[in-house]
Design brief:
There is one protein chain. Helix content is 27%, strand content 28%. By secondary structure, it is an alpha+beta fold. It folds into 3 domains: 206 residues, BirA Bifunctional Protein, domain 2, CATH 3.30.930; 128 residues, YbaK protein; 98 residues, Anticodon-binding domain (Rossmann fold, 3-Layer(aba) Sandwich). The strands form 8 sheets. Strands 3, 7, 8, 9, 10, 11, 12, 21 and 24 form a 9-stranded mixed sheet that branches. Helix 1 packs across helix 12 and helix 2 runs antiparallel to helix 6. The protein starts with 20 loop residues before the first helix and ends with a helix. The structure holds adenosine-5'-triphosphate (ATP) and magnesium ion.
Length: 567
């Protein structure tokens, strides 16, 4: 490729909306352009990277027993109505109507489509397992599309679906996908961690997310420095903190004027916040819920939602709180409320606590759970914090941020039951197929690689997914000798199938160096009059700046291949 022909318009100024480095660099280096919020054109350089990521994904999916197909993006509403998700999917789904008024959506995911496909065709246990996948655009009208390709509204996903005859089969499919994902992200040069993920209402240890570690990541994970445990904070299980027993003191109501936050109350009463209980109130499709956690803890809304089996959960407003028979800022656990009252399991083990008295400007002191509280259930519903004990070994956990680049998920029979995808087993019994689904964000993976691999000059591509491996820069295009050697290097590398750009533009060498660093070619070969006098050209490795001189006249290809192999 000649740089004079390459469609890679670089930018000096980056639009202010680009907040994270991958977004900024991909705009600056001419990898992509915005069409609408969360919707982008992938320019030739990005498209080359994406195809390389796709090919790594493809190879590993095929090796793990996957077969590629391509399903429609436009999906009829009926299959979503049949599974029950047409209504619950909500505003995230792009919906449309055809000329006859029939409803469709742009596929946000393909469980319905694949299950209705397979149900007509797989009838016997002998045809199982089946593992089918596609690499395709997905559409989600995200609430907050942002960070460029990280959270788009149109993005590329690989989605594989497995169908097995039983759970033992599903375990094998799941493990082979888990292992394939490990290989894929390793080949993409990502630093990542598989973490236990929330598997929603399905429950069980049925899901892992693959998190690329990066400070810009939207997900929070916890990990244990002394054992293998790692989990999404949403999922991480917590054992109740058990405190020394105390004699039960007498329950008292005290004035706490204007002390609406737990910090203000504890300061006013001169008590440690660990002695207090705070309340958070939610609306859900299962009704109003009051969740009580220790004053210094936070509610884990996903755990609350799973506990309730609720489809949605949102903060309740003051009116709803009043209707429950209490007062915002002064909600406590003593006395019955018109709401479902859920106690975190640590709260259940506390003695002589401070909590709201359900009246304006009043709190209880010395409230005791068993003696004084009225509640509906106790469950682990708080968010794990740094230094909480590891759920496996008890060591203090640490927190980190991650980018979810992939997720593997055991669906069991959720969709096969709803959509009647059954087969006949060895005994002629009709059973629902046991399913799993496995997604990789291809465009998000590209962003994640950049988040982990850049410097102040630009992107640093790993060889495996670089748009081109090598850029050749003739320092002066007017110098005949320089151009002759540059052309010779170019021809040799092309013949050897090294992906190479010759920067033949009539620009100053400095401009070309800047662009080369910005675009992030792993290797830059500079042909300049000075080094030619000494009989060599200079090969510079992008990621560490180290320089290797290549002798003019000798074969360039083996030397370049050797350098690339070791990068
Ligand atoms: P998130 O929690 O980040 O919204 P998700 O759990 O809804 O993602 P999945 O349904 O598991 O996403 O999709 C599989 C993969 O697709 C994700 O692991 C992620 O890499 C990618 N992905 C999901 N949503 C987006 C998006 N809006 N933009 C880019 N990639 C996405
Ligand atoms: Mg996910």
């Amino acid at each position: 490729m000649l740089a004079s022909n390459l469609y890679a318009p670089t930018l000096r100024e980056v639009p202010a909306e680009a907040e994270i480095i991958s977004h900024k660099l991909m705009l600056r280096a001419g990898f992509m352009r915005k069409s609408a919020t969360g919707i982008y054109t992938y320019l030739p350089l990005a498209w080359k990277v994406l195809k390389k990521i796709e090919n790594i994904v493809r190879e590993e999916m095929d090796n793990a027993g996957g077969q590629e197909l391509l399903m429609p993006i436009i999906q009829p509403a009926e299959m979503w109505q049949e599974s029950g998700r047409w209504n619950v999917y909500g505003d995230e789904m792009f919906r449309l109507q055809d000329r006859h008024g029939r409803f469709f959506c742009l596929g946000p995911t393909h469980e319905e489509m694949i299950t209705t496909l397979v149900r007509g065709e797989v009838r016997s246990y002998r045809q199982l397992p089946v593992r089918l996948y596609q690499i395709q655009n997905k559409y989600r009208d995200e609430r907050r599309p942002r960070f460029g390709l990280m959270r788009g509204r149109e993005f590329i996903m690989k989605d594989l679906y497995s169908f097995d005859k039983d759970e033992a089969g599903l375990d094998i499919s799941y493990k082979s996908m888990y292992d394939a994902y490990t290989r894929i992200f390793t080949r993409c040069n990502l630093k990542f961690r598989p973490v236990e993920a929330d598997s929603g209402a399905i429950g069980g240890s049925g899901s892992h997310e693959f998190m690329a570690l990066a400070d810009s990541g939207e997900a929070e994970i916890v990990y244990c420095p002394s054992c293998d445990y790692a989990g999404n904070v949403e999922k991480a299980e917590l054992k109740p903190i058990v405190l020394a027993e105390e004699a039960l003191a007498e329950l008292e109501i005290v004035d706490t004027p204007d002390a609406k936050t737990i910090a203000a109350v504890c300061e006013y009463l001169n008590a440690p916040v660990e002695k207090s209980v705070k309340a958070v109130v939610y609306n859900s499709d299962k009704g109003l819920v009051i969740v009580l956690v220790r004053g210094d803890h936070e509610v884990n809304e996903i755990k609350v939602q799973n506990h309730l089996g609720a489809l949605f959960l949102e903060m309740a407003n003051e009116e709803a709180i009043q209707a429950a028979g209490t007062v915002a800022g002064f909600i406590g656990g003593v006395g019955k409320k018109q709401a479902y009252v859920l106690l975190d399991s640590t709260v259940a083990k506390m003695y002589n606590v401070i909590c709201g008295a359900d009246q304006l400007d009043k709190h209880y002191i010395n409230a005791n759970i068993a003696r004084d509280f009225t509640y509906d259930a106790i469950a682990d519903v708080r968010l794990i914090q740094e230094n909480d004990p590891c759920p496996i070994c008890g060591e203090a956990v640490k927190k980190a941020r991650g980018i979810e680049v992939g997720q593997v998920f055991k669906l069991f029979t959720k969709y096969s039951k709803a959509l009647k995808a059954t087969f006949l087993n060895e005994n002629g019994k009709e059973l629902p197929m046991v399913m799993g689904c496995y997604g990789i964000g291809v465009t998000r993976t590209m962003s994640a690689v950049i988040e982990q691999s850049y410097d102040e000059d630009g992107i640093i591509w790993p060889v495996a997914i670089a748009p081109y491996h090598v850029v050749i820069i003739p320092a002066n295009t007017k110098d005949e000798k320089v151009m002759e050697v540059a052309q010779e290097v170019y021809a040799q590398l092309q013949q050897g199938k090294v992906e190479v750009v010759l920067d033949d533009r009539n620009e100053r060498a400095g401009v070309k160096f800047k662009d080369a660093d910005l675009i992030g070619y792993p290797l830059r070969i500079t042909v300049g009059a000075k080094t030619l006098e000494q009989g060599c050209v200079e090969a510079r490795i992008r990621k560490n700046g180290s320089v290797v001189n290549l002798e003019v006249g000798k074969a360039y290809l083996p030397a370049v291949q050797e350098i690339l192999k070791n990068l």
